[in-house]
Write a structure and sequence with these properties.
Blueprint lengths: L10 H13 L4 H13 L8 H8 L3 H14 L1 H6 L14 H12 L11 H10 L8 H11 L1
Helix pairs in contact: 1-2, 2-3, 3-4, 7-8
């Protein structure tokens, strides 16, 4: 089957990829992407997707996705990964609110309950007016963090 996305690297790009691999410069994903691009280069090693996937312990779909990203989005974004379009969510609770939740969790559960569930805690926190609304998942992360 003929490949839809062909990897053609310039000499400068090949050299940059070799430097990333040699110095282990960047994240593990960046190094793996550099290795895959070098092996997929038509003017270089020109390995098959299956051989690349086997050599680097990934799926062939991963290799195909990297080829496609190189052709559609360019070398820099493929190597370094895409930047987030929106920044991470700000912290939902401050330290005082977290302390209240932890103290509530360590206290006795309401009558009729054997222990605090995450959903019960989230309802109680809203009922007490600590926050306007909160999910049980935020409660879980807060309790796990203070662990």
């Amino acid at each position: 089957m003929q490949k839809k996305y062909i990897v053609r690297l310039t000499d400068e790009e090949r050299q940059q990829l070799r430097e990333v691999i040699k110095k282990l410069d960047g994240s593990r994903q960046k190094v793996r992407r550099a290795q895959i691009l070098l092996k997929a280069d038509i003017a270089g090693s020109h390995w098959t997707d299956e051989r690349i996937a086997e050599a680097f312990g990934c799926r062939t779909k991963t290799v195909e996705n990297i080829r496609q990203r190189l052709v559609e989005r360019g070398f820099e974004e493929t190597l370094n990964g895409a930047r987030r379009s929106t920044p991470p969510i700000e912290k939902l609770l401050d330290g005082e609110q977290e302390a209240h939740i932890l103290a509530l969790r360590l206290g006795a559960p309401p009558n009729g309950y054997a222990h605090w569930s995450l959903r019960l805690l989230s309802r109680k926190v809203v009922e007490l007016g600590l926050v306007e609304r909160i999910s049980h998942e935020t409660i879980r992360r807060t309790l796990k963090k203070t662990g």
